[in-house]
Write a structure and sequence with these properties.
The structure is a homodimer of 142-residue chains. With 142 residues, chain A is mainly alpha-helical. The first copy, chain A, is 67% helix and 7% strand. A two-stranded antiparallel ribbon of chain A has the order 1-2. In chain A, a hairpin with a 7-residue loop joins strand 1 and strand 2. Chain A starts with a helix and ends with a helix. At the A-B interface, helix 1, helix 5 and helix 6 of A face helix 1, helix 5 and helix 6 of B. Chain A binds a DNA duplex (30 and 30 nucleotides) through helix 3 and helix 4.
DNA sequence: CCTTTTACTTATCATTTGATAACTAAATAC
DNA sequence: GTATTTAGTTATCAAATGATAAGTAAAAGG
């Protein structure tokens, strides 16, 4: 087994995980927001509170465009902007109550599909999957 | 360990694999094509020969838009369209010589970054990664 | 044959996204 | 205390993408 083979297997996994992600998340997004806005909300959900510059960097969206999309999300009452009391240039973004409800619904739908996907796996399989996830997370996707 | 925990771990892996994909593929795309066109070329590369309808379905692009993008790729001489001799409504799409060169370059850049990423892993780690990839591929990402 | 279905195309339009320049306001550096 | 840097905003524009309607041509079904 050389590294070239490992590379191919890894690409195959990345391809599969992309496909599965699509499968798990398709149509969970509310029609009220655009794909980019959903990505931003997803990021805020797992990282809040977060600053506009962090969103910009991690999602590879320019600051002007990040600002524009955050403004739209704010107008839709899905997020809240708070100004840092120490440094008043900085902002903290979090989900609003309404935004949390929306994202909870989306994540619940994803979880349901996931549970459906693994429902036929045996206890041993699930444990093996768990170990494999840990291993890849630490050794490959650090 | 309940399924809820496994779900969270799996989401974490999907998130990581998305991040790593970004890292491995950023800037490998030629400026001559758009992101969607690159995705299509990627799909053609691993699945050729492939029909427009397959591309449309697998990449979730409507047939009219798939047709438009394939036309553009064809005008850029990156792909070739062949009509099925049996059923003249059907087409087979493959990379042109030029398209292959472009995609080979892109894949080589990705491979280099990948090798760089695993260069410090021990032989045992690599074997463990290999087994984990196989396991996830068969048990989770089927 | 004639109708229907399939595979793909063309044209058009609205929306989303990306890129850039010019801006404000606050903090920091000198 | 003025200059510079940082964090974010506004405005504007072009390009990419998505959606829809209407079309062609070949094949399949009756």
């Amino acid at each position: 087994m050389d590294n070239k083979d490992l590379f191919n297997k890894c690409i195959a996994l990345l391809t599969s995980s992309h496909r599965v992600t699509q499968e798990l998340t398709q149509n969970v997004k509310s029609d009220a927001i655009t794909p980019v806005q959903y990505k931003i909300l997803e990021y805020i959900t797992v990282s809040q509170p977060v600053s506009p510059s962090e969103i910009s960097e991690c999602q590879s969206i320019s600051m002007p465009n990040t600002s524009r999309e955050l403004k739209k999300l704010s107008e839709k009452k899905l997020i809240e902007k708070l100004t840092d009391t120490e440094d008043r240039r900085k902002q903290y973004i979090r989900l609003s109550k309404e935004g949390e409800i929306m994202m909870n619904e989306a994540f619940a739908a994803v979880e349901l599909r996931f549970l459906n996907r693994i429902q036929h796996a045996s206890k041993e399989d699930l444990e093996a999957i768990d170990r494999a996830l840990d291993l890849l997370q630490t050794k490959l996707f650090y």
